């Protein structure tokens, strides 16, 4: 890869997929059936993207575009707070309390275009064109012109270019590969017994979205162009046949390839997906993140002249996407972001965008997006009292989850407490309140809350675990271990509670019981690096070094960037007498910043008979005289 030194500036094409099926994508990339994604692995960089809770699609996409969590950006579900007259309005740009990446680039004087991005149902201040998602639910493409220039009076040349692009889009998708992939998907779906009538509206919307994206990317040269696609595979719920699933992902790859072919060599492509599973429907008293299928990692890929080929994307979250793009384009961000620009990804020296902000341009502020007085209000739908209450309640739940994810536990506890008071028959809110208070180490308050709980809620596994954790915090290890043993022996127990019980047993020095609990957790949940790391630590504590080594090796094989597992591997290697291998792993832990005092102490001991100078250095770093 080379830097963009021959051109005035670099461009960014940001492509979003609503979700990613890693097993399917990995398999298809390996066999060469998704070559566009494969290019990110071979020529750029491709990795996992951690979501933020809760896993609600508009919230995730807004966090990705703003670099802040939902408690700051204000999008708390699929709908705004219900209106007083019993009507609901879907979230839009007007729902957002802060600026997004396209506002930052626009305010820096850079042309910016946005296509189909979730939660942008209203247009907003933008130096370019926005085709929001709701456009694809209305009339012909060539009739959209009036709604595509938000807060911005386009020049005749700009209007002509957009008219030309929309005119091309109205003629249909310009890719034969897309048409073949579409026909293949439809054929496989029909052969699988799915009715065409249910797919045609979805495919028609996708046709329009892809046509507009291709036309605008090809004919409107923006410094930033952002386009978001649905994940076609999510249209087929349940365990879809492999042939159908593969056809969907091949079509997804074809659309990526179509856009990639339209950009010039000056463009860096960012491919992102904020989660690995489809968004589940809102349900009474539940958050989307409580569904195990929603717990996986998303995708991030970078490809182009601004990117180091093969650069590791370790620890990337959806909050880091917008700051990274801003850094690549050389534009200021709004203040108080939760994310940060990914390090080690940009080519050095990288030449940022040469466009200078106009004298009037100011760094974007963290404030509600401007809403012009003449902008038509977003449409609303009628809803009964029960539906309005459900929407309002779910917004509160999502706010509490976002606050908890932000470690703003005091604020989260207040929301959970109010939900518990308003809905005393819903036990989930008491459980969430107890968990939040424990995380905030408010043990006395938590104990008082538990004391007020009636039977059988006070016997719930999460409440019993909380009682055990309070006992441990009060140095009652015997009491804590006793409850943890009882929990780990229950015939019915959720894997999360079982894992926490196992960790508590290990913390109480009940190593043999911890081994049993971790082993059961592994048997119930499969290959989980966190479980394997805990099992390795418990086995090491019982001096079963060979078994500890096997568990630690399995954990590191699954998650090479999981430094705690690497530390467990180093301990096991030392226990097995493989000192040189242990030194190598401890040195890697040190480079990754894991428990430096403990790691220096281990290295000092290991080097003592080999290299006294190094041993003395590590003793000094560990603060050992």
TrEMBL record:
<dbReference type="InterPro" id="IPR002591">
    <property type="entry name" value="Phosphodiest/P_Trfase"/>
</dbReference>
<dbReference type="InterPro" id="IPR011990">
    <property type="entry name" value="TPR-like_helical_dom_sf"/>
</dbReference>
<dbReference type="InterPro" id="IPR017850">
    <property type="entry name" value="Alkaline_phosphatase_core_sf"/>
</dbReference>
<dbReference type="InterPro" id="IPR019734">
    <property type="entry name" value="TPR_rpt"/>
</dbReference>
<dbReference type="Pfam" id="PF01663">
    <property type="entry name" value="Phosphodiest"/>
</dbReference>
<feature type="region of interest" description="Disordered">
    <location>
        <begin position="348"/>
        <end position="379"/>
    </location>
</feature>
<protein>
    <submittedName>
        <fullName>Type I phosphodiesterase / nucleotide pyrophosphatase</fullName>
    </submittedName>
</protein>
<feature type="compositionally biased region" description="Low complexity">
    <location>
        <begin position="355"/>
        <end position="365"/>
    </location>
</feature>
